Amino acid sequence: MQSEPNDNAAVRAPSVAILLCTLRGHDYLREQLDSIVRQTYTSWSVWVSDDGSDRSTHAILDEYQASLGTSRLTILCGPAKGFAANFLSLACNASIDADYYAYADQDDIWESDKLTQALQWLEGIPSNVPALYCARTRKVDADNQEIGFSEKWTRPPSFANALVQSIASGNTMVFNKAACKLLRLAGPDIEIAAHDWWTYQLVSGSGGRVFHDIYPTVRYRQHSENLIGTNGTWSARIHRLHMLLKGRFRNWSQMNIAALEAMRAQLTAENQSRLDEFSRARQGGIYSRLAALLRAGVYRQTWLGNMGLVAAAILKKL
Q1: Which H or E run contains 68?
Q2: In terms of DSSP bridges, do strands 174-176 and 100-105 run parallel, antiparallel, or are they unpaired?
Q3: pLDDT confidence tier of residue 12, bands split at 50, 70 and 90
Q4: Helix H segments across the chain?
Q5: Is the dihedral of CA 187, 176, 198, 276 positive or negative?
Q6: Computed over its alpha carbons, how large is the radius of gyration of the chain?
Q7: Strands (E), 141-236
Q8: Which fold has domain 16-221?
Q9: Where are the domains of the chain?
Q10: CB count in 10 Å sphere of residue 194
Q11: pLDDT of 166 higher than 60
Q12: Dihedral (CA of 207, 213, 218, 220) sign
């Protein structure tokens, strides 16, 4: 006789590995960890990579590990090569096995439904397709008082955008195992400008899916110790223009192109061609540079940003 299905059998919820990097984070770390504990989605584990913090930070991590258990919170030593390398050390760690992965900064506060929001979209994507969820942020000051929101983009995420712009903070990003496999194929030691930008480039370049949610999922703390803060103010725009003229954007582009060339086989044929045209837009005479930029079809999310791209191509700062 055929047995009846067991309606009481537990169905395993997809697991989320939270990749948290710390460096002298004792001022705000408790609030971040508490916000993770309060998540409405509960099938998670935290993997911390510490890049050489003081005793205060380690004491906090030890306290939460004792409370949550070593299976829920694991503490590792980081590579001490900067924030991007630290995050990649976690994303590329083969011993961290999960269905989904989420970057986490030490000084932010997650909204209680952050993981729930992300998985609602990610669960609709076939598991073999690289997928990246990201979102707007609610900007807060050092005392967690609201001061605004990050930009609400109108143009779709794509590799054409990813080549010249990082549209989301890593602290909002959640990605699936197929996307993580791309990061691991590239490896933890690849030279990149930023881990979140690199994730966006890899997923979009391989033909994967990227979704930028207008719903803010993170309280993004703006304070004097931020390595990367808000970029929507006029002062931030003027600062970016100054950095463009000094050649920082060109250096980032060179770094990103080299990294993407190392992963060329993983890019779609269309995006390989786009990468080639973007590379041509950085060399040769002014007319050939502008023609290649047009053929590449790259774009930023704002009119002013696109004018900056043209200016960069003209000035050979792309």
Answers
A1: helix 55-68
A2: antiparallel
A3: confident
A4: 29-37, 55-68, 83-91, 114-122, 159-162, 177-186, 195-205, 234-246, 248-262, 269-280, 286-296, 303-314
A5: positive
A6: 20
A7: 146-149, 174-176, 209-221
A8: Spore Coat Polysaccharide Biosynthesis Protein SpsA; Chain A (3.90.550)
A9: 16-221, 234-314
A10: 20
A11: yes
A12: positive
